[in-house]
Amino acid sequence: MPRRPSAADDRVTVARLRGAAERQATQLLTGEKPADPDECATIAGNRPDLLAQAAGLLLAAGEAGASSWPERAKLAAQLLIDAGADQAAIPAWVAEGTKRLATRRPLLGDPKDPPPALPETPGGLMAPRT
């Protein structure tokens, strides 16, 4: 009997879906090659709920300005919808993504913050060591 995928398996699948959809969207936007919606459907493995989760999280990132390329996020979400995402589930995942973005703590600082000041080194950074 096949085992039921775990929550960890689902998280990995959603990450793979987001990566594939963003790569395909980038290729479409830069004119490299046409996207293949079958790739995302194959990764999802007959799981429209996971396609919806990935699409909703991408839409939330695009709307919140958390994506470096909002147009790519929207196009990637559309590719996931075209691959068979459960469209009724997407709004809940957009809300979840928005909530996650509002409560996230950056690992290395917010990109909008100025870089930390470097410690002063006598003679500058290129001063010979003594």
Total domains: 1
The total beta strand count reads 0
Provide a count of the helices: 5
Query: Ends: how far apart?
Result: 69 Å
Shape: globular
The stretches of 5 or more residues where confidence is low (pLDDT under 50) are none
Q: List the secondary-structure elements in sequence, H or E.
A: HHHHH
Approximate helicity band: 55-70%
Task: Specify the structural class.
Answer: mainly alpha
Q: Look at the structure and give the mean pLDDT.
A: 84
Beta percentage is under 5%
Determine Rg (CA atoms, Å). Answer: 20 Å
Q: Major β-sheet, in short?
A: none
Give me the secondary-structure topology.
Elements: H1 7-30, H2 37-44, H3 48-64, H4 70-82, H5 90-103
Helix pairs in contact: 1-2, 1-3, 1-4, 3-4, 3-5
Explained architecture:
- The chain has one domain (7-103).
- 58% of the residues lie in helices and 0% in strands.
- The protein has 130 residues and is mainly α.
- The protein contains 5 helices and no strands.
- Helix 3 (48-64) packs across helix 5 (90-103).
- 30% of the residues are buried.
- The model has no long low-confidence stretch (mean pLDDT 84).
Keywords:
single chain; mainly alpha; globular
Write a short abstract of this structure.
With 130 residues, the chain is mainly α. It has helices spanning 7-30, 37-44, 48-64, 70-82, 90-103.
